[in-house]
């Protein structure tokens, strides 16, 4: 009787290996032309996005998938990198109207932008599905609205148990996720303090995951309080040390939102020329995140940190 | 109780009116901006045991400062829970959220909202933010409070894009669509307060803001608006309610021109925190909250 | 034109009110005859289960829904309370074969027990569905096996996106969940340290939730580290203070599994007479959890605590 | 490397044989009992960068003592992650688990396992534990290692209840059923080691344990068992591998009669921790793990 030993296939788990690299290295290694890029709003992965803008001539085009986004997606849109966005919300939050997004959708400036709309929870459930290896998730959102009518990927069916309508959303498996978090060890165990939105499920859905963090800590520190680990190492490809890496936005327990800076930026984003000048100064004109921070001013960043620490710091669990 | 005041702005009147929709002990889903101010007024006055959820994963915060966004670190400050969006959004889909504040650019007589596009979806005149959490809350929250500017053109016969369901096409339509929540309870605008007829599901005018002319309201609504036979004037804010809002947000970032003031002015921004810290501490102490 | 103001319906959220009561009070208030009772294995809600056994003449019959269970379900089964069990696993773990369960299924002793089988994750996804208000969840488990053939509640369909098989499981909404956790404040914000299995989703699925805890803490302590809150107050009806409330099993960071006690118990559970004598001595013969602890010996419990603390304690998050 | 030893028990041989199936850097889903001993041997010898997941919500523990169950506090000790079952079970369904150890009471030639009932489901001769996580891991883990006692009656033509899928009815059947994982890679029993033919998906005998007679194996299998033309004897445990297991589990709770020893004897149980603490510290120090 014949026999032929089974070949053993490789799983998706990333190894517990040294994963620290620069933003430049991580973006070069994982973000390629026509990449399907996942991103979420808590916290803002500014250090990684700025680096993508610096490498835009190489990257050329990405398709974005977000739940909500404020600012980061529009930096990429304004820089001419985005062909399509799958989204729940893309606007300016407290900084107001997102003219970059409007120009792209309404006028194709700097390039046409295709939009695929979901509700926030509908968009979030796409990553919930992918994070568990499922082809779809049901939701009780989006029903009755016109969101499914303009987005054929959302399928309204009668559930086979109660015969009541549910709206299915398909799993989203981004090629790469870019995430900003509180801290990580060098093999990629990541902790997100405070509210972190969909960061957890996004990391579980993407084929490759780049996480920038405020602090690198030892694995021994991770092991002291494993309940705080939100993204275990096996999802993570690269850890980028980027202190203040979410500025102008906030990082829970680290520093406060720099509203003065954000409002000023959005004022400049009102025109294409203003946007171009802004990224020329702050992104293209700086060679890396440290230079950006110097341009903003570490004294200013430090004051934002003190402002946050006045109100909250993580500490003893008694 | 403190006395009514006439020293208020229209956004302040709207926030206070929304605050009055929130009952003590309730769990509410709140976005930043005007809903946040409404929630704070409620919490600091008639509803101390009310708690808010914030979309990106926080519940029950008790901050000493003004949150900047739904994912802001401030929402985590002395919260009962912080973590994932799944928790708060899952809870609301499962029926745990009593009340939610939402908004939109257009509304129709059934309380359906549009926050996606003005004009054609594929060639929009104005592209807007998209649903965000509005559709989710409109779908599943126990009831919704809708807050929007009434600009004369946005109370329309048909919204350009139905982002967030009100009563859809009328009686029974939400149930037929499979929606969990009970739909809009009130619409609070720059002109008045509207509610919905239990039988027809149509919006009617319940209260009119001080100084607003009923004729102007009718002109600002495209359909033949029903008026409550008990139409009254909107209750004025109290001195205390105004004090609460101005203590938390002294520059009127949310209810006035604060954002223009702060754009590009880091020192003014830092000073805002410095100057509001002690008044906030004092206010929360007086309420027994710290 | 007529108008009729809309009545406002009440949501499901429990109020942020004082919720501390005794196990006796909580079981009397929430557990009734024919109750559909949810329970999970981490941690073991022994103090609450013992109280149910004490009140068995009043309660008479429950239907159980579990993912995995070790010991607690069989205490109820052996006490004659259980008519049906929906489950992934019900056995003795390290304590070995569950003769109580076997007697009930194989011989109807002390009463016939209907079984509805799922895989563990299949069972878990029923609470994942309920916790988000969904009628069902898809899984990639259970496919190809005979589990769905013997359980018509599991529906295998082709998913509408890739046309590949998925096994749907229906949401499970228990009438009451009984849970043991680390600590809670008096309004019911609950923290579970260590591994807590499905405790989080079970609490979100049940109509009423009773949580016994090792420690009652202040709300101010909850507010110090809100990331550690696993069950927010709005799900919770009753908090029962039950130190060592999972004995003979363990409570992460509090005390170790009492294997010597558990093995001895399972040895006695081998016969109906042995089981009856055991519950007579340890459960029916003690009036409450404190008396049970005294019978076991607080000195012994304290040594189990020290044994756990030698290896791990929660503490500072640096 | 330390030398091979003949001072071992059959459970120890099985655990060591399973340990050799685990590669460095892999992520494995491990239950307590024999799989835990296998995982520990792997971690402390050839696979220091391998990490285990435990079903009730832990990953990467590095404990100084013996875990008692899948929900045991020990699994949390110095872990990389602790929390919900959803994390570890979701990860495995999504394809992140390289290898998992499972078991059952009956097995057929395609590696299908029964851990639910012996006899008729509705009137069972013996009711067993049920699937537990076994079905989930058999469905979705990258590969599975099956460990079971071979008692002469449990290698059957047809399992009484198919709890955990092996290759189902043969080639292509897993894919057709929609299963994510690749199915069983090895079956380790009290008699030998079996693998599966890539073309037919049928189990064949690859290795025979020292002292076991091939004729006895054939008698213990109901179907016509294929034998590898390269049939060899199972590699013996090394002295170090045996030392590791006996340091972690000095009373042979999992691989011997420890449970009989401890039942009702609290002092012996406490002494087990006391006595194993320093040897475990010394062992982990020698491996650079603490």
- Terminal Cα span of chain B: 21 Å
Low-confidence stretches of chain A: none
Radius of gyration of chain B: 19 Å
Helix content of chain B: 25-40%
Reported for the largest beta sheet of chain B, the result is: 10 strands, mixed
Strand runs of chain A, count: 14
What's the overall geometry of chain A? globular
* Bulk shape of chain B: globular
Count of DSSP-assigned helices of chain B: 9
User: What structural class do the secondary elements of chain A suggest?
Assistant: alpha/beta
Strand order of the largest sheet of chain B: 4-3-2-1-5-10-11-12-13-14
Mean pLDDT score of chain A? 95
Can you describe this structure in just a few lines?
The complex is a heterotetramer, with two copies of chain A (318 residues) and two copies of chain B (290 residues). Chain A has helices at 23-30, 46-54, 56-59, 72-78, 99-107, 120-131, 147-150, 199-205, 219-224, 259-268, 272-284, 289-296, 298-311; strands at residues 35-39, 62-66, 68-70, 82-87, 89-91, 114-117, 136-139, 155-158, 165-170, 176-184, 190-191, 208-216, 229-231, 238-241.
Description:
- The complex is a heterotetramer, with 2 copies of chain A (318 residues) and 2 copies of chain B (290 residues).
- Chain A is 35% helix and 21% strand.
- Chain A is an alpha/beta fold and 318 residues long.
- The radius of gyration of chain A is 20 Å and the shape is globular.
- Chain A starts with 22 loop residues before the first helix and ends in a 7-residue tail after the last helix.
- Chain B contains 9 helices and 14 strands.
- Chain B has helices at residues 10-19, 34-44, 85-93, 134-140, 173-177, 214-219, 239-248, 258-262, 266-286; strands at residues 27-29, 51-54, 58-59, 81-82, 99-102, 106-107, 113-114, 117-120, 123-127, 143-148, 184-189, 192-196, 203-208, 226-233.
- In chain B, the strands form 3 sheets. In chain B, strands 4-3-2-1-5-10-11-12-13-14 form a 10-stranded mixed β-sheet, sandwiched between helices. In chain B, strands 6-7 form a two-stranded antiparallel sheet.
- The longest helix of chain B has 21 residues, at 266-286.
- The model of chain B has no long low-confidence stretch (mean pLDDT 96).
- The interface between A and D is large, with 34 and 44 residues.
């Amino acid at each position: 009787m014949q026999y032929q030993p089974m070949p053993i296939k490789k799983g998706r788990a990333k190894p517990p290996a040294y994963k620290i690299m620069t933003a430049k290295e991580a973006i070069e290694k994982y973000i390629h032309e026509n990449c399907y890029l996942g991103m979420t709003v808590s916290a803002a992965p500014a250090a990684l996005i700025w680096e993508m803008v610096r490498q835009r001539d190489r990257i050329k085009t990405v398709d974005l998938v977000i739940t909500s986004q404020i600012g980061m997606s529009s930096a990429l849109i304004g820089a001419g990198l985005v062909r399509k966005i799958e989204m729940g919300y893309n606007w300016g939050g407290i900084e107001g109207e997102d003219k970059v997004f409007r120009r792209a959708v309404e006028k194709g400036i700097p390039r046409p932008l295709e939009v695929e709309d979901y509700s926030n929870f509908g968009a979030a459930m796409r990553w919930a599905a992918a994070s568990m290896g499922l082809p779809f998730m049901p939701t009780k959102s989006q029903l009755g609205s016109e969101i499914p009518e303009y987005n054929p990927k959302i399928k309204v069916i009668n559930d086979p148990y109660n015969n009541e309508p549910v709206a299915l959303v398909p799993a989203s498996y981004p090629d790469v996720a870019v995430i900003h978090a509180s801290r990580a060890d060098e093999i990629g165990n990541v902790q997100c303090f405070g509210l972190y939105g969909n960061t957890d499920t996004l990391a579980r859905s993407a084929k490759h995951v780049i996480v920038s963090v405020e602090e690198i800590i030892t694995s021994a520190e991770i092991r002291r309080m494993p309940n705080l680990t939100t993204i275990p190492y096996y999802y993570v490809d690269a850890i980028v040390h980027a202190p203040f890496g979410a500025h102008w936005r906030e990082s829970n327990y680290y520093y406060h939102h720099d509203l003065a800076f954000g409002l000023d930026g959005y004022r400049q984003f009102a025109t294409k020329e203003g946007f171009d000048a802004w990224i020329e100064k702050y992104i293209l004109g700086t060679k890396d995140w440290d230079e950006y921070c110097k341009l903003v001013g570490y004294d200013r960043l430090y004051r934002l940190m003190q402002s946050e620490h006045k109100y909250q710091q993580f500490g003893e669990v008694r | 109780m403190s006395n009514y005041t006439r020293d208020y702005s229209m956004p302040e009147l709207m926030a206070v009116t929304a605050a009055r929709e929130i009952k003590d002990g309730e769990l509410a889903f709140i976005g930043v901006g005007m809903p946040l101010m409404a929630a704070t007024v409620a919490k600091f006055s008639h509803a101390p045991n009310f708690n808010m959820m914030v979309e990106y994963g926080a519940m029950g915060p008790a901050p000493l400062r003004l949150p900047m966004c739904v994912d802001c670190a401030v929402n985590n400050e002395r919260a009962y829970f912080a973590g994932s969006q799944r928790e708060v959004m899952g809870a609301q889909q499962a029926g745990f959220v009593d009340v939610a504040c939402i908004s939109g650019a257009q509304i129709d007589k059934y309380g359906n909202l549009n926050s996606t596009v003005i004009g054609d979806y594929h060639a929009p005149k104005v592209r807007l933010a998209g649903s965000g959490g509005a559709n989710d809350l409109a779908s599943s929250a126990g009831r919704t409070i809708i807050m929007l500017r009434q600009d004369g053109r946005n109370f329309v016969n048909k919204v350009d894009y139905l982002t967030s369901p009100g009563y859809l096409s009328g009686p029974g339509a939400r149930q037929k669509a499979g929606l969990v929540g009970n739909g809009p309870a009130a619409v609070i605008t720059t002109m008045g307060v509207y509610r919905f007829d239990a039988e027809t599901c149509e919006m009617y005018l319940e209260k009119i803001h001080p100084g607003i002319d009923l004729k102007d309201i009718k002109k600002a609504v495209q359909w033949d608006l029903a008026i409550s036979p008990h139409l009254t004037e909107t209750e004025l804010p109290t001195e205390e309610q105004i004090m609460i809002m101005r203590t938390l947000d002294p520059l009127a970032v949310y209810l006035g021109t604060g954002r223009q003031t702060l754009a590009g002015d880091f020192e003014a921004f830092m000073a805002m925190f410095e100057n509001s810290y002690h008044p906030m501490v004092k206010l929360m102490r007086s309420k027994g909250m710290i």
